[in-house]
């Protein structure tokens, strides 16, 4: 006979006599080749339970990376802006300072207005 079928039949026989069995049961098959254990879930009284603690999240919707929104929009000095841009773009600070010749070229008017 199939050992699985034998185990199922043994379980059915033990369930019929459930009043004599304790809350947990250990059953052996007829040829003692397999052990079947039954562990019902134990009930826990509702009165003894506590609600789960409410956890406040570590993050906020009003954050940009590790910085708060208010910090992002406050006025910064020119060197602070250059430092931030250099960190974000992984470049040196020199990329963000304009060259003197470019500044001077913007302020000068052409000597021939028709060009």
Automatic annotation (TrEMBL):
GO cellular component terms given for this protein: mitochondrial large ribosomal subunit
Q: Which UniProt keywords apply?
A: Mitochondrion, Ribonucleoprotein, Ribosomal protein, Transit peptide
Q: Per its UniProt record, what InterPro entries does this chain match?
A: Ribosomal_mL42
Q: Which Pfam families match?
A: MRP-S32 (PF10210)
- Principal localization reads mitochondrion
Name its cellular compartments: Mitochondrion
What does the sequence similarity comment in the record state about its family? Belongs to the mitochondrion-specific ribosomal protein mL42 family.
Q: What name does the UniProt record give this protein?
A: Large ribosomal subunit protein mL42
* Organism (species): Mycetomoellerius zeteki
Taxon lineage:
Eukaryota, Metazoa, Ecdysozoa, Arthropoda, Hexapoda
């Amino acid at each position: 006979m199939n050992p699985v079928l034998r185990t199922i039949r043994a379980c059915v026989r033990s369930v019929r006599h459930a009043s004599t069995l304790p809350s947990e049961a250990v059953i052996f098959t007829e040829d003692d080749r397999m052990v079947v254990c039954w562990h019902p879930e134990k009930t826990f009284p509702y009165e003894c339970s506590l609600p789960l603690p409410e956890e406040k999240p570590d993050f906020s919707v009003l954050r940009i990376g590790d910085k708060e929104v208010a910090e992002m929009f406050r006025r910064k000095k020119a060197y602070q802006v250059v430092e931030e841009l250099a960190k974000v773009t992984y470049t040196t600070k020199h990329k963000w300072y304009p060259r003197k010749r470019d500044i001077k070229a913007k302020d000068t008017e052409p000597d021939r207005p028709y060009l």
